[in-house]
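Annex B. Sample input.
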Amino acid sequence: MAIHPEVSSHDWEARDRRERLRTTRILTVGAFASFVLSQFCMLVPTAHPKPWYVYALVGTPLGTLITWLGIIWLPRAGSEGFVSFLWPNKGEAVRETSYSHIQAMAAAGDVAGALAAYEAEIAANPAAIAPRAQAAELYATGADPARAAKLFAEIRRIPGCSTQHDLYATQRLVDLYDGALGQPQKSLTELRRIVERHAASREAPFAREALARRKREIGR
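Annex B, continued. Sample output.
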């Protein structure tokens, strides 16, 4: 069960570029409109008339600031404040980087290169779950099941690791300990973890049954 984030960092970079371009256009129009309006203000009779550039120097930046506050900052601040109240962690999972280029390397047969690339990502991102999960799945296919088990265990220790990721990593550890690593005693520990920490999951009844069966087998 590999983790495949659906939105890559390139998608977010493109969106950020479009947002910056939109902001630039709005501020440019706002500055031009403010300059024109400042010149109209100069036509209003006053006791102490000022040169045209005084109106431009004061009115243009002031109007641009008002444009930014009214069109960009205020709507964004209002919506983000409300959304963050309803959804405090918005965007975190979506922004997780995609590693499709590394997956493509592995699919093309360059397993060693893919694993090296994953290890570089893991070293650079201590709290990243996706590269650990994908590397562990690749190691588990035969390259190094012990390293796979270590990575699955690391996933569970990452601060903020979700219940779903914890359960996934635990299930994969059960598979490895029962299979390639041949350590059934450690498998029992992982089954207990599923029963105790994920009692409401669909996997818990199966883990409970497997745990009871293993205990009976050991007692024979």
